[in-house]
Amino acid sequence: MSTIEKAIDVDVPVRTAYDQWTQFEDFPQFMEDVERIEQLDDTTTRWHVKMAGQERTFEADITEQQPDQRVAWKSRGETKQAGVVTFHRIDEGKTRVTLQMDIEPTDWKEKVGDALNIIDKKVENDLEQFKTFIEERGAETGAWRGQVDQDPTS
Predict the structure, then answer these.
(1) Which class does domain 2-22+62-138 fall in?
(2) What is the C-alpha R_g of the chain?
(3) What is the pLDDT of residue 104?
(4) Which helix or strand (DSSP H or E) is residue 104 part of?
(5) What is the mean pLDDT of the chain?
């Protein structure tokens, strides 16, 4: 299991950064390997990703969501990952977005990519793309302000 932790400062208020992050179906606009995300219900997403020519579909559950503070998730099935993204107010118009993920590579390609820090670099690049996306827009594409507090062991 590998842990990746990255942070980036974005020039938008906390609410704008957080609200955009809750728009999972927009992730393909700033996450390179994400082909599509379906929001199945308030706490379930289905991810369609393509990495190194390999396509994969998996579901993830939102295990915690506190408006303007954090979103946590855990994948289901063969794909093993879990993480949390937190939002910290630096000042009125600037937010630090911190992403922490635990990933367990499942095949030799993923294990090599992990060993070469390719996954780490992809996460860093995705955060840079999120920064560009939200700063160029200046506003979120939508928002979901609900709170989620599921038992992560269930």
Answers:
(1) alpha beta
(2) 15
(3) 85
(4) strand 94-104
(5) 92
Report the alpha-carbon distance of residue 131 to residue 10 in Å, rounded.
Answer: 5
- Under 8 Å between Cβ of 32 and 51: no
Q: What is the pLDDT of residues 70-118, one digit of tens each?
A: 999 999 988 889 999 999 999 999 999 999 999 887 777 777 777 778 8
91 burial via Cβ count (<10 Å: 0-12, 13-18, 19+): exposed
Q: Can you give the residue ranges of every domain in the chain?
A: 2-22+62-138
Tokens matching residue 69: 């503070």
Tokens at 136, concatenated? 């160029």
Token pair for 57: 């579909």
**Are the beta carbons of 5 and 100 closer than 8 angstroms?**
yes
Q: What is the DSSP string of 107-132?
A: SHHHHHHHHTTHHHHHHHHHHHHHHH
pTM: 0.90
Q: What are phi and psi of 31, to 5 degrees?
A: -115, 115
Q: 73 near 60, Cβ under 8 Å?
A: yes
Would you tell me how many other CB atoms lie within 10 Å of the CB of residue 20?
23
Helices (H), the chain: 14-21, 108-115, 118-137
> What's the CA dihedral at 46, 120, 52, 59 to 10 degrees?
-10
